C-alpha cells in the first residue's frame, strides 16, 4: 500500500480519486487551497494540507511520508485561461514544477498527472491517438502540454516514473454511501451539468448546430469519473521504472450535444429547454479518443455508459 499525495483532492476528480484510494487501502494526504474545491468533499480519513501549489515549503511538508503523487491541482477552465493566461501559467506550470521539486527533495519519484485532450487542439482526425501532434488552441491546453513535457524531461533528468493521463470529457459522480461527490463548479461550464440545470427561463445554449457532423452539433467522448479513477489507480500501481508515458482516457466513441440532450430527456422524463447559440471559440467539431493504449498498457476499458453518467450527475446535483 502507498501513501499518496493527492493535489486538488477537494475538487471534482481529485476528491473521487482520494475516496477510491482510501477505499483501496492506501493512505492519502490531500493538498488543496480550496480556491475551487470544497471542504465538504474532503474525506475525513485523509490528512489535509490547505495551501497553494505556489507554496513550495507547504508542498515539501505535505510530501513527507508520501511515496507517490496524483496531481489534479490547478485551474481547468478554457474560457478563463483565455482571459487570464498568466494565472494559468503560474498555477498549472509553476505549481507543477513545485510539485516535482518537492518530490525530488523528499525522495518521491512516482507521479500520475491529470493532463487533457486540450493538448491536441483542433484535430482533423478522429479517433486521436497519443502520437497525434499536440497543437493546443488555448492557454489551458498549452499549460497541460508544458507539464507533460516537463514530466518527460524530469523523468530523464531526475529518474521520475510518471504517467500523464489525457482526459477527454469527464462526467458522472460517485456515491460514497453517505454523500455524492460530483461536479460542483461555480460557474458551471460543462455540458452534462448544464443540460441538467436547464430551465425554460434559462435554456441550455447549444454552441452551434452547423458543424460538419451528422446532426450539426459537436461530438465529444464522455467517460465516467469512476472509470477514469480506476485507470489512475492502475497507472499508479504500474509506476516502477523511470520514464514518462502519455495515455488517453475516454470511451473511444463519441456523442453529439443533441444526443446528450436526448439521453437526458429520456432519463429525466421531460424535455430540456434549449436555444441555438453561436459556435464557442476554440471548439473542435469532433473530439474522440483512441483508447487502444489504455486498453493495452493499463488493461483498462470504461464500463459505465453515457446514461449512467447523466443519472449519477443528476443524483449528485445540489
Ligand atoms: N456545450 C454546449 N453548451 C454548453 C456547454 C457545452 O453546447 O452550455 C458543448 C460544447 O460546445 C462542446 C460540448 O458541449 O461541444 C462539451 O463541452 P464541455 O464544455 O462540456 O467540454 P469540452 O469539450 O469543452 O471539454
List the helices and strands and how they pair.
Elements: E1 3-7, H1 12-23, E2 27-32, E3 47-50, H2 56-63, E4 68-71, H3 78-83, H4 85-106, E5 110-116, H5 139-158, E6 161-167, E7 169-171, E8 174-175, E9 180-181, H6 191-197, E10 204-207, E11 219-220, E12 222-224, H7 225-238, E13 243-249, E14 255-256, H8 257-268, E15 274-277, E16 286-287, H9 292-297, H10 306-316
Bound molecules: uridine-5'-diphosphate.
Structure overview:
- The chain is an alpha/beta fold.
- Helix 1 (12-23) crosses helix 7 and helix 6 crosses helix 8 (257-268).
- Helix 1 links the parallel strand 1 (3-7) and strand 2 (27-32).
- The chain contains ten helices and 16 strands.
- The longest helix has 22 residues, at 85-106.
- The site of uridine-5'-diphosphate has 14 residues, from helix 6 and strand 10.
- Uridine-5'-diphosphate is lined by residues 169, 189-191, 194, 204-207, 218, 220, 257, 280, 283.
Instruction: Quote the average pLDDT.
Output: 96
Straight-line N-to-C gap: 34 Å
Largest beta-sheet details: 7 strands, parallel
Low-confidence stretches: none
Helices, by number, come to 10
**Structural domain count:** 2
CATH fold-level name of the largest domain: Rossmann fold
Helical proportion, percent range:
25-40%
Q: How would you concisely characterize the structure shown here?
A:
Helices cover about 35% and strands about 20% of the residues.
Amino acid at each position: 500500500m502507498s501513501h499518496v499525495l493527492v493535489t486538488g483532492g477537494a475538487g471534482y476528480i481529485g476528491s473521487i480519486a482520494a475516496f477510491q484510494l482510501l477505499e483501496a487501502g492506501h493512505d492519502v494526504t490531500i493538498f488543496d487551497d480550496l480556491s475551487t474545491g470544497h471542504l465538504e468533499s474532503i474525506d475525513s480519513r485523509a490528512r489535509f494540507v490547505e495551501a497553494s501549489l505556489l507554496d513550495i515549503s507547504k508542498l515539501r511538508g505535505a510530501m513527507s511520508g508520501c511515496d507517490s503523487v496524483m496531481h489534479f491541482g490547478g485551474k481547468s477552465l478554457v474560457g478563463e485561461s483565455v482571459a487570464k493566461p498568466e494565472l494559468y501559467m503560474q498555477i498549472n506550470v509553476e505549481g507543477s514544477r513545485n510539485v516535482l521539486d518537492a518530490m525530488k527533495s523528499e525522495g518521491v519519484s512516482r507521479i500520475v498527472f491529470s493532463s487533457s485532450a486540450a493538448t491536441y487542439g483542433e484535430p482533423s482526425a478522429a479517433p486521436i491517438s497519443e502520437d497525434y501532434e499536440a497543437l493546443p488552441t488555448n492557454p489551458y491546453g498549452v499549460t497541460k502540454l508544458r507539464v507533460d513535457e516537463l514530466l518527460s524531461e524530469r523523468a530523464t533528468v531526475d529518474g521520475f516514473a510518471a504517467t500523464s493521463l489525457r482526459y477527454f470529457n469527464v462526467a458522472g459522480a460517485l456515491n460514497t454511501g453517505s454523500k455524492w461527490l460530483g461536479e460542483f463548479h461555480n460557474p458551471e461550464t460543462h455540458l452534462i451539468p448544464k443540460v441538467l440545470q436547464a430551465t425554460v427561463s434559462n435554456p441550455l445554449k447549444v454552441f452551434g448546430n452547423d458543424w460538419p457532423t451528422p446532426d450539426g452539433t459537436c461530438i465529444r467522448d464522455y467517460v465516467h469519473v469512476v472509470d477514469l479513477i480506476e485507470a489512475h489507480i492502475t497507472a499508479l500501481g504500474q509506476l516502477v521504472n523511470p520514464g514518462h508515458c502519455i495515455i488517453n482516457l475516454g470511451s473511444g466513441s463519441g456523442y453529439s450535444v443533441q444526443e446528450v440532450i436526448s439521453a437526458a430527456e429520456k432519463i429525466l422524463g421531460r424535455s430540456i429547454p434549449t436555444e441555438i447559440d453561436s459556435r464557442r471559440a476554440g471548439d473542435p467539431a469532433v473530439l474522440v479518443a483512441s483508447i487502444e493504449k489504455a486498453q493495452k498498457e493499463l488493461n483498462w476499458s470504461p464500463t459505465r455508459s453515457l446514461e449512467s453518467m447523466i443519472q449519477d450527475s443528476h443524483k449528485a446535483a445540489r
